[in-house]
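Example 3.2
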Amino acid sequence: MAPVSSATTGASRAWSTWKCAISTASTSVIPRRRRASSIRPRSGATRVASFSSDGREKKPSTRTAELPSVTRTFETPANAVRDSGMLGSMKVIGLLGGMSWESSIEYYRLVNERVKSVLGGFHSAHTVLYSVDFAAIEAMQADGRWDDAGAELNRAAKALEAAGADFVVLCTNTMHKVAEQLEDGLGIPLLHLGDATAAAIKAAGLGRVGLLGTGFTMGQPFYRDRLAAHGLDVLVPGAEDRDLVHRIIYDELVLGVVKPESRAAYRGVIARLAGAGAEGVIYGCTEIELLVGPQDSPVPTFPTTRLHAEAAVDYALGTTALPVRPA
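Structure, written as tokens:
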């Protein structure tokens, strides 16, 4: 059967390509004047309550109505718009967020601001968002169940692909620990946050940078190694400062709590990184930008949420290639 579409004035809109078979064995009509329940005495039959004009119930009768199975085909919004020519060359950005939703809001805002700044007028980004329950992901982090977390994000990424996304933007630094598992069997690319960040640092002409993030991001090699693959030297704070940075992220920022005293504490950590030789500082947790900005650092800063969002839009518009890890 041909795809079903609905038209509105000045534009047509077709919906997601998926098939559903609707099969029903019976149908019944109940008068509105009195609610009645249908009783199914046997498969394919329905007992229907009917009423006379004075509202009294008539003698029950049983009737059977057979309807043929129906298969209908619908098209995804992204594919339909692309096929119509309305999308042009803009790719659909698949945002995998919810970790936490506080920073996912920033991603959505930033990608749309970027599209508007480039294209002007009423333009906005073509996006698909899948938001996970961060409570489940955080529990997996705490328990060290990274394989379970990777499997969950792999399912989410495949859902974005099925919804019409052309590539995936994982809206969190920490969960790039399971980036390879997320990509397993995925038919669209992942725009790795580490690659986008490294590209910005190298464009600024820097080679040695400090890294702030969760304890996982600062303490484990998955993120630092990705940056090192681009020729960067990465410094992390001492153990006490790492604990402070991590605690503020999980106890405050992911909950939407922003405290002046925490900002002051972060400024101290940043200053110590700069004093240790960092030429710039990476805000390597998507919530950190809710607390501090460039004005809080004596050296250039690299806000990963903004850098990631801008790289996604530039790739979606075809102005740059997908940032990748050097071979």
